[in-house]
Amino acid sequence: MKKILFFLLAIAVIDFACTPKASPAVTEATIPSGTAVSNDAGTIEAGHVLFTTKCTQCHKEKPIRKWTYEKLRPVLGAMVRKAKLTTTEIGQVSAYVHANSKK
């Protein structure tokens, strides 16, 4: 009986741990288009700081000069959701990526 209860508890814990977590809805539409991105040097620098601190927590810094900003927008949408960035931070990271992406 103890083995069955332990097994059921283990299944419940695994099921709970693997359930997708609720997160704010960030879509590609939330990421500013190339024409709406700020060109302010302070915003770009703040985006660089966020990019190097938040993004490199999970993986090493990726070279963004290989792709255009429009190709990176869906990636940004997925990553800002995982990093739990605010709207202001999304604008800053977007400005940095836009300034350093392939033109």
What are the salient characteristics of this protein?
4 helices, 0% strand
Low-confidence residue ranges: none
How is the main sheet built? none
Question: Helical residue percent?
Answer: 55-70%
The N- to C-terminal Cα distance equals 66 Å
Our estimate of the beta-strand percent is: under 5%
On the 0 to 100 scale, the average pLDDT is 83
Shape: elongated
| Number of distinct beta strands | 0
The value of Rg in angstroms is 19 Å
Q: Structural class of the helix and strand makeup?
A: mainly alpha
DSSP summary: helix tally: 4
Q: What is the helix/strand order?
A: HHHH
Structure description:
- The chain has a domain at 39-103.
- With 103 residues, it is mainly alpha-helical.
- Helices cover 58% and strands 0% of the residues.
- It has helices at residues 2-18, 41-54, 69-83, 87-100.
- It contains four helices and no strands.
- The protein is elongated.
- The mean pLDDT is 83.
